[in-house]
TrEMBL record:
<keyword id="KW-0489">Methyltransferase</keyword>
<dbReference type="InterPro" id="IPR051052">
    <property type="entry name" value="Diverse_substrate_MTase"/>
</dbReference>
<feature type="domain" description="Methyltransferase">
    <location>
        <begin position="47"/>
        <end position="139"/>
    </location>
</feature>
<protein>
    <submittedName>
        <fullName>Class I SAM-dependent methyltransferase</fullName>
        <ecNumber>2.1.1.-</ecNumber>
    </submittedName>
</protein>
<keyword id="KW-0808">Transferase</keyword>
<dbReference type="GO" id="GO:0032259">
    <property type="term" value="P:methylation"/>
</dbReference>
<dbReference type="GO" id="GO:0008168">
    <property type="term" value="F:methyltransferase activity"/>
</dbReference>
<dbReference type="InterPro" id="IPR041698">
    <property type="entry name" value="Methyltransf_25"/>
</dbReference>
<dbReference type="InterPro" id="IPR029063">
    <property type="entry name" value="SAM-dependent_MTases_sf"/>
</dbReference>
<dbReference type="Pfam" id="PF13649">
    <property type="entry name" value="Methyltransf_25"/>
</dbReference>
Amino acid sequence: MTDPWQWDETLFAGTAPHYRRGRLPYAPGLPESLAAELGLDGRGRLLDVGCGPGTLALPLAHLFREVVGVDPDPGMLAEAERDASGRGLTGRTRWVRARAEQLPDGLGEFTVATFGNSFHWMDRARVAATVRGLLRPDGGAFVHIADLKTGARSAEGLPHPAVPGAAVADLVRRYLGPVRRAGRGLLPDGTPGGEDEVLARAGFPHRRRLVVPGGQPLERTVDDVVAGVLSMSYSAPHLFGERLGAFEADLRRLLHTASPAGLFSERQPSTEVRIWLN
């Protein structure tokens, strides 16, 4: 029987330099949709939990007076701080190295707490209860943001081949084994769902849902796709050890065979937003 998976600090080790280039962005219109749904006017405070390199926090920063991003990975926070400086947001952003389960004292009260594809990595009941205590009692919002899992994203009609996802996944398995890797452990059953039940038990009585539509055509280079693979927890660079160079060479050969021009087409995923109010 496989031991239960436990978080460790290597989960995203080495992925930060690849993250921004490799991950597809959230759907255009997400900040505007969130602002309209929650009445955001630039005066509140945002807590982004599991912020990574600021992928979500920085595009939302103009909606708040202050943004606090929390992440346990120092590489992610360094990327976030660098990008915030480039956007002229240093004075409005703060980056805190901590696990969500160990949020430090003194963070203050927040209007909104966001979790962008991060909540499933956490002790969700503990984090939900802690974050509820940090949110405004009169309508503070716990916001879960992720790519919409339903709906086809065919590249049909676009100018370049689709990314050969199944072949890439097979290559990762050849190097790392058949069971999904996650830090130093294995994750055979994937990450958990059921956020509604978790948040209800934590005392969030109201839920809203909105979908920000995607579907826009995207052009991706071989370098973009390689970065995407190396940004994932299950194919993080450190997992390959001394074979990282060989894996990347095989991956590039696979991609150039699929598209000799070195270009791929994808469609922007839609973004699902679920909101629980205090």
